[in-house]
Amino acid sequence: xxxxxxxxxxxxxxxxxxxxxxxxxxxxxxxxxxxxxxxxxxxxxxxxxxxxxxxxxxxxxxxxxxxxxxxxxxxxxxxxxxxxxxxxxxxxxxxxxxxxxxxxxxxxxxxxxxxxxxxxxxxxxxxxxxxxxxxxxxxxxxxxxxxxxxxxxxxxxxxxxxxxxxxxxxxxxxxxxxxxxxxxxxxxxxxxxxxxxxxxxxxxxxxxxxxxxxxxxxxxxxxxxxxxxxxxxxxxxxxxxxxxxxxxxxxxxxxxxxxxxxxxxxxxxxxxx
Length: 273
Ligand SMILES: [Zn+2]
Ligand SMILES: [Zn+2]
Prior knowledge:
Layout: E1 2-7, E2 21-25, E3 30-33, H1 39-45, E4 55-57, H2 69-79, E5 85-89, H3 93-103, H4 105-113, E6 123-127, E7 131-136, E8 139-145, E9 155-161, E10 164-168, H5 176-182, E11 187-191, H6 209-219, H7 223-233, E12 237-241, H8 249-257, E13 263-266
Parallel strand pairs: 3-4, 4-5, 5-6, 10-11, 11-12, 12-13
Antiparallel strand pairs: 1-2, 2-3, 7-8, 8-9, 9-10
The protein binds zinc ion (2 copies).
One zinc ion binds at residues 60, 62, 148, 151, 171.
């Protein structure tokens, strides 16, 4: 099982860290977790053409995790074949895909005008809850709920197979269910969205900077919390992603290492973990 961080950023645009996306590959198949900004280009940089990818899992429906699903979907159709894109995600995923295909309808029909015998893009959607999701060759994929209220449900995923256990947190504050679900994994890829690095301007939705920082910190995991999560889960390696543009690698790894004796890796786009 090969795991590549395609995008390690979060909502603020950041050329160095594209939106959340992680590639999980076996010898036979590729699977993508989330479709943040820039995912199709990052996928290509990781050596996978968009039309060679047939499976996508979504952790939740926040825009930073699926803003480029439409780009991926239409790119693999324009460039490739009609192999269906198979999607798994929380309730609401089917509606999102239907609306995305509606939005692309004019483009799809215009392109079909000068193609021959070309069907429309096919997407199958499975709306999931906790539990087994699918198998990818020898790798079993399991979903578990995390804590990202008011987003309900939001999921993390665990991959077991090929002698490894790898967990991807999705967006969450420190979650007991994640800690249970990640127990004994080799690699925990966990979000670390430092709320103190956020920007604030009048009219942005919070009356003060302090209010915004408190609100973001309440549904994301902070640098001084993520090491405790990894220690309680008993994982070997902690990889940090979903990082703010102002977060520095040295600062993050020092914060995580205060509570976690294992290996800490600050994620970078295209890093294999
Ligand atoms: Zn996010
Ligand atoms: Zn989110």
